[in-house]
Write a structure and sequence with these properties.
This protein has 146 residues and is of the alpha+beta class. It is 24% helix and 30% strand. The protein folds into 2 domains: 30 residues, no CATH class; 98 residues, no CATH class. The protein has 3 helices and 6 strands. The chain starts with a helix and ends in an 8-residue tail after the last strand. About 25% of the residues have low confidence.
């Protein structure tokens, strides 16, 4: 790149090539560690989650399908918890088998991804005004669960 064009790029974007490359290396490292917003996470699955009362189903298999953007999570939880940025929002899907199109729901965890499992019977109201429950997450144990 010609020096004049690089100066124009830096003034247009506010970033030098070196700064841009550093960010690329950091992003690549995060993906290698399983910290990307999509794909398979390497962190240990959360042991509990917030789920809306109308989406809660005990002993029904679910799977994590996507992670919500943090701004979306913050917007949903801002009037419910004091620090919504400590929570991660997910779109989950109840699904019995590969042919079942499933039912989607939104849920929030602290300390790990949603993963795959079932909500257990250990449930408490977390925020009655928001219709949010705190439910335990258990390992899915086949089709004998309900």
């Amino acid at each position: 790149m010609e020096p004049g064009n690089q100066a124009k790029l830096e003034s247009d974007t506010g970033e030098s090539r070196r700064s841009f490359m550093k960010k690329g290396v950091l992003a690549s490292g995060a993906l290698a560690l399983g910290l990307g917003a999509s794909g398979t996470a390497t962190a240990q699955q959360a042991s509990s989650a917030l789920v809306f009362t109308y989406d809660f189903a005990t002993n029904r298999r679910f799977e994590q399908t996507a992670q919500l953007q943090q701004g979306t999570t913050n917007g949903i939880l801002q009037d419910v918890v004091s620090q919504p940025d400590e929570w991660t929002g997910f779109i989950g899907r109840y699904r019995e088998d590969e042919e079942d199109p499933g039912e989607f729901f939104i849920t929030f965890t602290r300390g790990g991804p949603l993963g795959t499992g079932v909500f257990g019977a250990d449930v408490t109201f977390f925020a009655t005004d928001a219709n949010l429950l705190m439910a335990s997450i258990q390992e899915y144990e086949g089709s004998n669960g309900g």
